[in-house]
UniProtKB/TrEMBL annotation:
Compartment(s) of residence: Membrane
Organism (species): Paenibacillus aestuarii
Keywords, comma-separated and alphabetical: Germination, Membrane, Transmembrane, Transmembrane helix, Transport
Lineage of the species this protein comes from: Bacteria, Bacillati, Bacillota, Bacilli, Bacillales
Top-rank taxon, per record: Bacteria
Protein name (Swiss-Prot/TrEMBL): GerAB/ArcD/ProY family transporter
């Protein structure tokens, strides 16, 4: 609509790359967590193959299945959110002091670096036409983003209360480290349960990103989604098994955050402005 058939299709293909990159980032990060905390001797391709089969099964169920899975993900996130009581209870308020001792540029850099935890909401650009009664659902979309943001804020504060700055800098996956302090009479290693419950949280985001790739391919090339799904998952598997070193995982995360930041704060505003210009010119032509 905005860029024309040829340029628009080219940009759509780039968007396939972006959604694929988002899926790759989430996928490889979770595999790294499992390898670091649960199965240090398991190979990357073994975990990847298991999850690829699960992803294929879920996406083949259609968008209704993915939306239902997202509902379970939301419920699970609220249940796991209750565990922040323990780091807050054992935290040290002095770790938050002094307040406002950073410049605006430092706060901006920190905000940019933390964008990785928000990746995924931009898939709305693809599944928006599948939502019924859009006018009624707007408030729920904003409420969902607000709730998600507040959850991240509280989790961040709880980690800052529990860890000192030096310890936080040297800790790999601080949120998982906090779960090691949680003790119940009926279970000893709560972090194992936490990690495997995390599957319910990361799978919907991963599946929706892959689903977006197949939908854009269908729109641009008219390729059957089932066929393109096999093709996309095969590439995902081949790329994942090539990322074995920790610095490669970190580099992938940094690059994904950079791409997501410019996609949300540069591409989408430009697209919005161009769309307004196009609509205004079209309205003038209709009047004339």
């Amino acid at each position: 609509m905005v860029f024309g058939r040829l340029l628009g299709s080219s940009i759509s293909l780039l968007l396939i790359g972006y959604y694929f990159l988002s899926a790759l980032y989430v996928f490889r990060t979770y595999i790294d967590i499992v390898q670091e905390w649960v199965f240090p001797n398991i190979r990357t391709w073994e975990l990847a193959l298991i999850f690829i089969c699960l992803i294929f099964y879920l996406i083949c169920g259609g968008f209704r299945v993915l939306s239902g899975l997202t509902l379970f993900s939301t419920i699970t996130s609220f249940i796991l959110f209750l565990l922040i009581y323990f780091p807050i209870n054992l935290g040290n308020l002095s770790h938050l002091m002094p307040v406002w001792n950073h410049s605006c540029s430092e706060l901006f850099q920190a905000s940019k670096a933390s964008y990785g935890i928000y990746i995924g909401f931009e898939a709305l650009l693809v599944y928006f036409p599948f939502i019924r009664s859009i006018e009624k659902q707007t408030k729920w979309a904003h409420l969902g983003m607000l709730t998600n943001t507040l959850q991240f804020v509280v989790i961040t504060i709880s980690n800052l209360l529990y860890y000192s700055q030096g310890l936080l800098r040297r800790t790999l996956y601080p949120l998982l480290g906090v779960t090691k302090i949680i003790e119940f009479d009926f279970v000893e290693r709560i972090e194992f349960i936490f990690i495997f419950c995390w599957v319910i949280l990361f799978i919907p985001s991963l599946c929706i990103s892959i689903w977006c790739c197949t939908r854009i391919l269908k729109r641009v090339t008219h390729l059957n989604p089932r066929t393109s799904l096999v093709f996309v998952l095969a590439i995902l598997f081949l790329v994942v098994v090539q990322i074995n070193e920790k610095y490669e995982v970190n580099s992938l995360g940094d690059f994904t955050v950079q791409a997501g930041f410019y996609f949300v704060f540069a591409y989408i505003p430009v697209l919005f402005i161009l769309f307004l210009i196009r609509r205004k010119r079209k309205a003038k032509l209709n009047v004339a």
